[in-house]
Structure formats: C-alpha cells, structure tokens
Amino acid sequence: xxxxxxxxxxxxxxxxxxxxxxxxxxxxxxxxxxxxxxxxxxxxxxxxxxxxxxxxxxxxxxxxxxxxxxxxxxxxxxxxxxxxxxxxxxxxxxxxxxxxxxxxxxxxxxxxxxxxxxxxxxxxxxxxxxxxxxxxxxxxxxxxxxxxxxxxxxxxxxxxxxxxxxxxxxxxxxxx
Amino acid sequence: xxxxxxxxxxxxxxxxxxxxxxxxxxxxxxxxxxxxxxxxxxxxxxxxxxxxxxxxxxxxxxxxxxxxxxxxxxxxxxxxxxxxxxxxxxxxxxxxxxxxxxxxxxxxxxxxxxxxxxxxxxxxxxxxxxxxxxxxxxxxxxxxxxxxxxxxxxxxxxxxxxxxxxxxxxxxxxxxxxxxxxxxxxxxxxxxxxxxxxxxxxxxxxxxxxxxxxxxxxxxxxxxxxxxxxxxxxxxxxxxxxxxxxxxxxxxxxxxxxxxxxxxxxxxxxxxxxxxxxx
Lengths: 176, 279
Hints:
Chain A: It holds the Pfam family CheD. By secondary structure, chain A is of the alpha+beta class.
C-alpha cells in the first residue's frame, strides 16, 4: 500500500491484499481483476474503508496476523475497525466490485475464482446486515476504482488490455 | 508523417472548425437547424423531411418500432410519426444520418469496412443507452439515444481522414495519442458542428474521461455503461490492443432491487427494434 499526497486530498493506493480504513479527504484507489473490493461507508460519520482480496479464505486456518489477501480475513479487519469506531455494521453502506474472469491477463487461473470472490463478499454483507447499495461485478478485464471517503462516491473505469501497462477503455491513460 | 503527428494535425484542423461533412448530409443538417428554431412547425418539418427519403424512412421505422409503438399501431405518414417520436428523437435520427454518411467518406475500402463496423457498434450503444436511461439511470431516453448515436463522431471523422495518412489505422499502438486527448479534441469540434445539445456534450466529456459513477446516474454514466455492454465493440479499440477479443460481456450490476441481466433480458426486443430502425 502506498500513499500519494495530493493538493486536495490524500490518495491511498491498495494493492492485492491491502486494506485501509479511515476518513477525511482520502481517496482509496485500486486496480481489480478477479479480486474483489468492498467499499464500506458510514454516511453520517463519513468514515469507511476498502479491502482488496484475492481468494475467499486460506486453505488452513492460521493464528498469524490477519492477511487481507483472503476475504474471510479482510472481513474481520472491517469488523475490527467497526468496533474500534464504536459503530455497527448495519450503519454502513456497501459497494462491491470486481470478480472479473480475467481470461487474458491471468491465464491459468480458474475462471471461477472471480465468481467465488463475489459470492463470499455478498455473504459477508448479508451475514452482518450491511446493505449492498451498488455493485459492478463479473465481466472480463480490469477495473480501476476510486473511493472518496469524504463523500462516499465511487468512480470506476474499465481499463482494458494486457500486462502491467494499463489502459482506460476511454479517455486518458492510467498506470495501475 | 508519424501517427501522433498525423492525429495532432487532424485534431488541430477539427478544433479550428475545419470539419468536412458529406455534401448529401445537407438536408439532415437543415432539419437539425429547423429543430433549433423555437417557431419550428411540424408542417415545415414534414416538407423538409419529404425531400430526404432516407431520413423519412428512418422516422417511420422508429415510430413503428417496439420501443415507440408497444401497442403495435402502425403509422404510415410523417406528420403522425413525428408526433409519436417527438422532436428529440427526430434530432437523434437526423444526427444518425450525418454520422452514417460520414461512414462512407473514406476512399479506402479497408477504412470504410472499419467505419461500417463502427456504425454497428454505434447502433448497439445508442439502443442500449436509450434503454439504460429509462430503466437504470433515469435520464431522458431521447437524449441518451442522441448521445449514443453521436458518441463516436470523432472516430468516424478520424477514419474519414485516415486515407491521407498512410498507416494511421494499421499500426499496433499508433492510436495512443487518439485515446489520450485526440478523440476528445476532434469529437468536441464535430459535436459543435452538429449543434449537439450541451447535456450531450457534457455526457461525452464523462465518456472521454472514462470514469463511471457507482451507482450510475448521469447521461455520461449511461453512455459509459452502454459502451461497455455493447456486444460489438469499437473497431478502433481492437486496433489499439484494447479489445475484448470477441468475449461476451457478462457484467452484472445491482440496480435497486433489480439486476442488469434481468433488465437487458426483458428489453431485448426493444433494443433490437431500435437497432433495426437505425440500420
């Protein structure tokens, strides 16, 4: 995870497995393939966070520190922050993204990974009564996301193409 | 001349207002101007339309499409057809004539083939945009239809000028400059020449910017979504190694309590009827 200062807001870039929770004028950005990101936002307190997980869970449970690459552990990170901020899961609004098939860029990976990642994210939200107000999932290729914590707005681009050099489908180039 | 320089020159010509439309789009542009006139009467429009058989046929076809005629009551005269579809849809159709005829401007058969594919993409985007506006983003469906029809005007213009710059559309990554600022520069100039409404111009800026608000809500979001969902993608994206490579779009969105898949399935006939009206 790296933080890029900006004149108007601070940008936090999430890589696979990263997690961020906070508030203020912070934009959380990430690039998704078959991974899934969930943005949780508290509309009254204007705080929230985002995860970027790659798989539903570890093959074996671990006693080690929570690892955000696994959905089950990223969800626990959310719950820890929700408790620390004296809020309730149901106070938050959720937006869920990703789970693409990535048929070109991630050859060899099972195309079902994306679908399983989507399903486990939805299950977590349902289990904790967190309303899912918007989702943009499936498809093929990548998504670039910006989540503005001061408004709760999420902006999404459909970068296409292969390899590390990422293109926006429309408009200016981005490097993921 | 290398591709970026050629694109810069085309964009600069367009930005100066040096836009060449096909001569036979004249009547369509006159209809467009008549629609801008607050005193425009349907009688004068009918008279003008009667002089342009292609446009007249499109008006009747759209008025009798499932989208505008769900009850199946057929209309055979222009006056009633205009009354049914409204001036906004008529504006969209006249733009479609101009855009469609830009398709044939190139003297190069390979470029005309690219333009034909781009028109196919355009009809998908325009039809989907109208549906998405009505069912998803709650925007004006006719404005979305218009925006869909003109959303590739810059690309059509580029193709029409490409013959003067050999190799421009053939290189693997030669369209980098186009996907940067070139498309927006040329697109803005062509839209201005077409007298596109400000709301459509704003939507195009969102499209060129490339960021969709979630949940999608604006006219620009409508265009972005339609563009992403269109089963035929822009051939210029394919030229630039940005292609979906023919893979189907299996995008899913949550829209209130409905899913995008169910909305698209329910409305397949409506979308198809609009595409036929533009064909």
